[in-house]
Amino acid sequence: MAYLSTDKKKITVNTLLQMKANGEKIAQLTAYDYTTAKLFDEAGIDSIHVGDSGSNVVAGNADTLPITVDEMIFMARGVARACNHAFVVCDMPFGSYQVSREEGVRNAVKIMKETGADALKLEGGIEILDTVKAIIAAGIPVEGHLGLTPQSIHKLGGYGLRAKEEAEAEKLLADAKALDEAGCFGITLEKVPAKLAKTVTESIHGITIGIGAGPYTDGQVLVYTDAFGMTEGFKPKFQRHFAELGQGFKDAVSAYCKAVKTVDFPNESESY
After folding, report:
1. Is 190 a catalytic residue?
2. Domains of the chain (ranges plus CATH)?
3. Which member of 165, 190, 244, 268 is catalytic?
């Protein structure tokens, strides 16, 4: 019987791979704290990604580079505690696995021990393959990340579509196959042509999670503040607003301020 997303059984790597085999799409959202993750988990989300995008969403940084291992641990610990159902993937931040294989394994073990996350995600292809293999050998599930890799934004020169040209597309496919053969359970494909994402999805054993990569990946991920209309002035082509919570928050704050200033709150029934 196909996996049912309404079943509250904890999702594992094996569950995700079975979902791919069954043709069931995987729904993933980012989250960075216990309260938000608990709501998502109770709503039936398949997976939560504790992204280094928390550098932008939580800390207000211009890119993902400043966030540290300890800051990722702080966020992921709360998310993992909230999830009885969803599979929790935590990003390894910039600088935590690029220096050496040994340092990458050390940081990976630290994140897993101190968060309770189910897996880690690393950006890059063949260049980080030795580190990926070593982390997997330590017993830690690893997800790759190809295409637009925000930790390399200064090298890439911007947030535009990746792998438009044949050479870059061929390298991305080769990287995906190498990561898959190394034992990665999945790969995030960010901002790449849908046709290429389809080829990658059909070429590897592991799952693919797309963001701006078309409808053919095994699943989709979005930054929840973007998807729910909380990030003003940001709506790239791949983005859809599933709610307008930004305006809802503003309306609620305005109502609260008005109630306080007019001494409507607290009223007699709300007082001891």
Report:
1. yes
2. 13-241 (3.20.20.60), 244-272 (no CATH)
3. 190
